[in-house]
Structure formats: structure tokens, C-alpha cells
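Whiteboard transcription, Tuesday session. T.W. wrote the C-alpha cells on the left side:
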């Protein structure tokens, strides 16, 4: 399982679609999924989380809903795909809970880790790519995209600056599992950096692609 994570508007969507294309171009069976969501039940929970006003849920309720969605996503999508020998690319995973609810929110990392242990236990992705971008550029991009899934964007710039720092802090804890990618580069440069990281980690010879945007 390869996770692409980072602040809102950092380009995860495009880059995860490109990575999927690169894997499939060389005949690897792969699926692309996302959190919150990624299975029918988890997508139902996603709607509760990403719409409405920020104060609709407090940090703890938000965390529990994220983990309810995560558990459904793992059981219904991720674990069956891995068992069938497929690559799983996920646009966000548990580090989003650590960053958004734990470090940038008021819960603290320990609380997230306790819930994580109960809901997920031992399972971990093999590689996590953190797309790093200043929160002001990232939020502007997310805003330009529009739509009604903007509950988290409305939490403000200071919150998103803490989220950015949180991802960097998490990545520093385990350099073998995490790679930080500078998402201020061009799309194609970001794709190149992602492919290099994946090739190095899994001893593959993937090529970057620009299709699937
Ligand atoms: P998305 O727009 O990247 O699909 O994610 C929706 C929002 O959910 C995004 O603002 C980040 C937030 N989020 C969390 O706060 N905690 C989590 O565990 C996950 C997966 C997402």
C-alpha cells in the first residue's frame, strides 16, 4: 500500500491518478482509493465529515468518524485488494488523522494512536509520500476547486499551517517509510519525484506519466 498525503490542495488527487497509470502501464494490478471514503459505507461517512460548518463535530467525534470510515475502507477495499496481490494507492490515510485531529487539532498524538491501535492494530502502509506545500498556496488551490466539500477548508489558515508542520513532524519519525516531496514544483517534477521514491523503495522501474489528470 502506497499512501499519498498532505495538506488540502497539495495535488494528491492528480498525483495518485498518475501513479496508478504508471503502475498499470507496466502491467501491475493496482487500485486507487481514498480516505475518508474508498468503500460504499465509508463514502457515506465521508459525506458527514466534509460538509457543513467546522463546529458540526468536535475533534473527538471527527476522529471517531474518521476511524469508523477507515475501518470500513480497510475491511471492504484495502485488505481484499492486498490479499489479491494488487497494489493499493490511497489518497490519504491514518497520517491525516494524526496531523488534522491529533497534532493540529486539540486531541494530541497519543489519543489518535490509542484509537488507531483499537481500530486498525498492526497494519501499516509500505510507503507514505507527503506532498509538502505552503498552506496559503494549497488553500487557494483548494478554494479555486470550489464545491461543497469544504468543511475542513473553513477551519482557517492557522489550522492548516499547523497541519503542514504536523505532516513534516510525522515524516521525520520514520525516514524509511516516509518521503517528503516538494509540491511547489511543477506537476511533472512532482510526478518524477514520486516515481523515483516508489522505484527506490520497491526496486521497480516505473516511468512517470501525464495521462489521467
Ligand atoms: P480530501 O479532500 O483530501 O478528500 O479530504 C477531506 C478532508 O478530510 C481533508 O480536509 C482532510 C480531512 N481528513 C482528516 O481531517 N482526517 C483524516 O483522517 C482524513 C483521512 C482526512
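and on the right, the sequence the group agreed on:
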Amino acid at each position: 500500500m502506497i499512501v499519498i498525503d498532505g495538506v488540502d490542495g497539495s495535488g494528491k488527487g492528480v498525483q495518485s491518478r498518475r501513479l496508478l497509470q504508471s503502475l498499470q502501464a507496466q502491467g501491475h494490478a493496482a487500485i486507487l482509493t481514498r480516505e475518508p471514503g474508498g468503500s460504499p459505507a465509508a463514502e457515506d461517512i465521508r459525506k458527514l465529515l466534509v460538509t457543513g460548518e467546522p463546529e458540526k463535530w468536535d475533534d473527538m467525534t471527527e476522529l471517531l468518524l474518521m476511524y469508523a470510515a477507515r475501518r470500513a475502507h480497510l475491511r471492504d477495499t484495502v485488505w481484499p485488494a492486498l490479499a489479491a496481490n494488487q497494489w493499493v494507492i490511497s489518497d490519504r490515510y491514518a497520517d491525516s488523522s494524526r496531523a488534522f485531529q491529533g497534532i493540529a487539532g486539540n486531541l494530541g498524538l497519543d489519543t489518535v494512536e490509542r484509537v488507531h491501535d483499537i481500530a486498525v492494530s498492526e497494519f501499516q502502509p509500505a510507503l507514505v509520500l507527503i506532498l509538502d506545500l505552503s498552506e496559503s498556496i494549497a488553500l487557494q488551490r483548494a478554494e479555486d476547486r470550489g464545491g461543497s466539500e469544504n468543511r475542513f477548508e473553513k477551519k482557517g489558515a492557522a489550522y492548516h499551517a499547523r497541519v503542514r508542520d504536523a505532516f513534516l513532524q510525522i515524516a521525520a519519525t520514520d525516514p524509511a517509510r516516509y518521503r517528503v516531496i516538494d509540491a511547489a514544483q511543477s506537476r511533472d517534477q512532482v510526478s518524477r519525484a514520486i516515481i523515483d521514491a516508489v522505484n527506490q523503495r520497491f526496486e521497480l522501474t516505473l516511468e512517470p506519466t501525464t495521462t489521467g489528470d
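Someone added at the bottom: Strands lie at 2-6, 30-34, 87-91, 127-132, 178-182.
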